[in-house]
Specification:
This is 3-ketoacyl-ACP reductase. By secondary structure, this protein is an alpha/beta fold. It has one domain: NAD(P)-binding Rossmann-like Domain (Rossmann fold, 3-Layer(aba) Sandwich), CATH 3.40.50.720. The protein is built from nine helices and seven strands; from the N terminus they run H-E-H-E-H-E-H-E-H-E-H-E-H-H-H-E.
Length: about 260
């Protein structure tokens, strides 16, 4: 196999991607389909799952709230039946959480952020890992963290706390699962172009009492390359991590962010 071939995920790779009916998750799902993978997506938004899978018959879809362990168990079981096993789990589902000073954050919003962003990934791991051990010769897991998982993020403490926790989860699992030839890596997206980032910027601008344009310019000044990343940038990194070229890469937190210097 030449070097170029090593950069391609093997055909027929069995992939489960959470939070994948829109945004980064959907972009990754499309990229893996184009790489001849067998892809199951999961999302809490039933209408979005239906819309995405109806326009791409290569995709299979499930509806579930990742914070509900029983629903997650059903998704993993359905994935095993539909795909005949599992080679790659991309734990992508997550929410932005509240924006505000720590004393103003509602306890229920904090709990919801932790339950979705951190516990949701655990819910999938506890069922997906045994399936991988049973059905895959060389499996891998990609954890979607964030640049907020390596930098402090004032007024976004619930989100940042979960994303830092996911880096610890990734590094610990890489050690635990290495003897089973299961690789575990985290992708840390930076400021990603799209509607979700527009909402985050608007909420932060309101919290700080500045205009949205001023807040957007402030975000760009923090990036060495002075530009946001795209969902395609994230998808390309996921494809690489799932390819034979990355067979000795595990326990790593890979920032795809243009080098965000601070938040």
């Amino acid at each position: 196999m030449n070097t170029f071939e090593l950069l391609k995920p093997r055909p027929g790779l069995r992939v489960l991607i959470t939070g994948a009916a829109a945004g980064i998750g959907a972009a990754m799902a499309q990229a893996f389909v184009e790489a001849d993978a067998k892809v199951m997506i999961c999302d809490v938004d039933a209408a979005a799952v239906e819309a995405f899978t109806s326009t791409n018959t290569s995709l299979r879809g499930c509806v579930a709230d990742v914070s509900d362990a029983d629903q997650v168990d059903q998704v993993v079981a359905a994935t095993g039946r539909a795909l005949g096993g599992l080679d790659l789990l991309i734990n992508n589902a997550g929410i932005a959480g509240p924006t505000g000073a720590i004393e103003d954050i509602d306890a229920q919003q904090w709990e919801r952020t932790v339950t979705t962003n951190l516990n949701g990934q655990f819910n999938f791991l506890r069922k997906a890992v045994p399936l991988m051990k049973e059905t895959s010769r060389s499996a891998s897991i990609i954890t979607m963290s964030s640049v907020a998982g390596r930098l402090g993020y004032a007024f976004r403490t619930p989100y940042a706390a979960t994303k830092w926790a996911l880096v610890g989860l990734t590094k610990s699992l890489a050690i635990e699962l290495g003897p089973s030839d299961i690789r575990v890596n985290a992708i840390l997206p930076g400021i990603v172009q799209g509607e979700r980032m527009d909402r985050v910027i608007a909420a932060r601008a309101e919290s700080l009492g500045v205009t949205v344009d001023a807040m957007r310019d402030d975000y760009l000044r923090k990036i060495s390359l002075r530009r946001m990343v795209t969902v395609q940038d994230i998808s390309a990194t996921a494809l690489f991590l799932a390819s034979p070229a990355a067979r000795n890469i595990t326990g790593q937190s890979i920032s795809v962010d243009g080098n965000v210097e601070y938040l």
